[in-house]
Structure formats: structure tokens, C-alpha cells
Design goal:
342 residues, alpha/beta, TIM Barrel, two-stranded antiparallel ribbon, 11 helices, 36% helix, 15% strand, binds NADP nicotinamide-adenine-dinucleotide phosphate
Length: 342
């Protein structure tokens, strides 16, 4: 697999990694199987997809424990990427950026992952009650202590920065909202003053290209790595989901504005467009969706999530798919995705 340098040369990983979240979080609980998930991690490593992306809150904790069972045997082959700063409450998620929490969280992740060093430690969400410089300073001390090799930030939600969850829809009175991820970029600049940001993780896919405007250019200018989360549009871009199929109550897509039956039907032209390009290459729509992400910049690593070994292998093979200028133009001409709030 093609190797990509992220974070000013200190970190190198396969161009396609493995998002481990679906094994323990966000999607239907009834479909989670620990043993087959472990096989999936092994299959990804065998295929060169060595960047394993997890978080302490996936499960919570069980996803890191699962990875730990694999890493106990194959640590040297893996690039371990985990996160802290987001806690699972009874009915909602809470950010915790207190330095003492960060120190405890890192030690706990190291134990669960059965390793003595984390390759990339990411701030999952900034805590609105703690200056981000304090949290980031505590994370920087973990690098000095040798527990962590480099630091990253998750910037999920183009509307309101790391800590996100907002959107880039127009503001009140029809005034345009500021550019997607503008707040995230301001916060990254503050963090960079304290300690280098080696990688930024944010959503990037054919149906969520907002990071291309400000966030990815910020990374490119600084040699910062970019980890593309949700590159398959939570499965939609693979063409394996059927409009109206429904999602179990505990699946985030049950409440997602692009996963109503009406919007899944309305967005079919995107899948059809990916399928047309895929047919030219003897590839799958999922592989084209990933190759598009990889084509956006040389320091992008795609993090497709899956709990199935055959899909991990299929996704890893996308690293070898080179889209032509005509392919990229065809994808650029596809209609923008619609959501139920549009
Ligand atoms: N930092 C953050 O706040 C944040 C937020 C979201 C995601 N992430 C990261 O990004 C990763 C990816 O995001 P994601 O998993 O939500 O979304 P995704 O990669 O866009 O899509 C995952 C979904 O696609 C399905 N899938 C995967 N490969 C497939 C293939 N080849 N053919 C058909 N279906 C396929 C999976 O099914 P199965 O589950 O059945 O295998 C899963 O339901 C996560 O694992 C996580 O590491 C980070």
C-alpha cells in the first residue's frame, strides 16, 4: 500500500487506514461482533491499512480493549491513533479538557491498548470551559514523557470548530455564515502556538467536501496530516444501502437528516455517479469514494470504518486506484447532497 507522510515527516502510515468506530459505537449495536471485528483489524493490517483509529469513548472503552487484543500480538505493524476529551454521559456527550483528566485518560488508553506508546493522540472535542491551550499543553507533556509520539485534533462539524456539531448553513436573515471550519482554523492557530498539531481529523467525502475550503489548505500549508473521517458517507456512498430500509433506534443514521427515506432517494444520483466511474476501473463505488478523498492532497489518509474483514480489504485496495482528471471532473459535476433540512 502507498505510504503517506503526515505531520511534518514524523508520522508515516498507509494511505487507507481503518476506522474502528463501527465495531463498538454509533451504528446498530445488534450487528457488533467482537471476534469478527478482531479478524477485521487483522485483515486491515495484512492489507497494509495500518492506521487504526479509535477513541476512549467508542464503546465506551470496549473499542480500545478490542484493539488491545490485536496489538498484544502485532503492535509493531500498527499505527495507533486514539482520542481523549469526550465522555459518554447518561444521555449526552460531555467534553472534558482538564489537564488532570487528560493525564489519566492517556494512562488508561495505554493500558487498554496494551502498548507503551500511542502514535497519534487526538483531542476529540475542546472543552468550552477550559482554555484549549491548557488542555493542549497537558497533551504536549505526554509527548515529552514519551507516552505519545504526536498530537492531533478532531474538527468535526464545519459550523463551529473543534467541539463542532454545527453546520455551514446560512446564518439568520439570509446572511452567509462564515466559511466552513473558520472557527476550527482559529482554534488550530491557538493550539499551534503551544505545540505542533501533527494531524487534523475531520469529515471529508464526496458528499461532505466542506473541509476543502479552509481546513485542508491550512493543513497543506503546514505539512499537517489530514485524517478523513466518514469518507464513505456513513455507508451511503458505497451504494449498499437502500432508501427506506430503516435503521435501528440506536443507529445514528436513524436521526440523520440525510438518511430519511426521502433524502436517501434524492441523493441516489451521487451513488450512480460513483458507480459510473467505478465501472470504468473495475472498482466499487466505495473504492472510488475513497480514491476521491486520497486525490485531494498528498497528506490525506482515509479512515473508512467497518467491522467486516471483506470490506476492510476492499477499502484498503482503494489506495491503488488512481482517478483520472475526467473521473474527478465527473465527480465534481455531481449534484450537492441534500438533507431533510434543505
Ligand atoms: N473524530 C470524530 O469525531 C469522528 C466522528 C466520526 C467518525 N470518525 C472516524 O472516522 C471513521 C469512519 O467513519 P464512519 O465509520 O462513521 O463512516 P464511513 O467510513 O463513512 O462509513 C462506515 C459505514 O460504511 C460501511 N462500509 C464500510 N466499508 C464498506 C464497503 N466497502 N462496502 C459497503 N459498506 C461499507 C460500514 O458498514 P459496517 O459497519 O457494517 O462494516 C459502516 O456502516 C470512524 O471509524 C472513526 O475512526 C471520527
Amino acid at each position: 500500500m502507498e505510504r503517506r507522510t503526515i505531520g511534518a515527516g514524523v508520522l508515516v502510515a498507509g494511505a487507507v487506514g481503518l476506522g474502528c468506530m463501527p465495531m463498538s459505537w454509533a451504528y446498530s449495536r445488534s450487528q457488533r461482533r467482537g471476534e469478527s471485528s478482531e479478524r477485521t483489524v487483522h485483515a486491515a493490517l495484512d492489507a497494509g491499512a495500518d492506521l487504526l483509529d479509535t477513541a476512549d469513548m467508542y464503546g465506551p472503552f470496549t473499542n480500545e480493549l478490542l484493539l488491545g487484543r490485536v496489538l498484544a500480538r502485532r503492535r509493531a505493524e500498527a499505527f495507533v491513533s486514539t482520542k481523549c476529551g469526550l465522555l459518554v454521559g447518561d444521555s449526552h456527550l460531555v467534553a472534558d479538557g482538564r489537564p488532570e483528566y487528560v493525564r489519566r485518560a492517556c494512562d488508561a488508553s495505554l493500558r487498554r491498548l496494551r502498548t507503551d506508546v500511542i502514535d497519534l493522540y487526538q483531542l476529540h472535542r475542546a472543552d468550552p470551559e477550559i482554555p484549549v491551550e491548557e488542555t493542549w499543553g497537558a497533551m504536549a507533556e505526554l509527548v515529552t514523557a514519551g507516552k505519545v509520539r504526536a498530537l492531533g485534533v478532531c474538527a468535526l462539524g464545519p459550523g463551529d470548530g473543534p467541539g463542532g456539531g454545527g453546520s455551514s448553513r446560512p446564518g439568520r436573515g439570509g446572511r452567509p455564515a462564515e466559511a466552513p471550519y473558520a472557527a476550527a482554523v482559529r482554534q488550530l492557530a491557538r493550539m499551534q502556538q503551544v505545540f505542533p498539531v501533527s494531524a487534523v481529523q475531520a469529515e471529508l467525502s464526496v458528499w461532505a467536501p466542506e473541509a476543502l475550503e479552509l481546513l485542508l489548505p491550512w493543513c497543506r500549508e503546514r505539512g499537517t496530516g489530514f485524517l478523513a473521517a466518514m469518507p464513505l458517507g456513513s455507508g451511503f456512498l458505497t451504494g449498499t444501502l437502500t432508501p427506506g430500509q430503516g435503521f435501528e433506534e440506536d443507529d445514528v443514521r436513524a436521526r440523520h437528516p440525510r438518511f430519511t427515506a426521502e433524502m436517501m432517494a434524492a441523493n441516489q444520483p451521487l451513488v450512480a455517479g460513483l458507480r459510473r466511474v467505478a465501472e470504468r476501473h473495475g472498482a466499487t463505488p466505495a473504492q472510488v469514494a475513497l480514491a476521491w478523498v486520497l486525490a485531494q492532497a498528498p497528506q490525506v489518509v482515509a479512515l473508512p470504518g467497518t467491522k467486516r474483514a471483506e470490506w476492510a480489504v476492499e477499502n484498503a485496495a482503494a489506495a491503488g486506484l488512481r482517478l483520472t482528471a475526467a473521473d474527478l471532473a465527473d465527480i465534481a459535476a455531481l449534484p450537492p447532497a441534500r438533507a431533510s433540512w434543505d
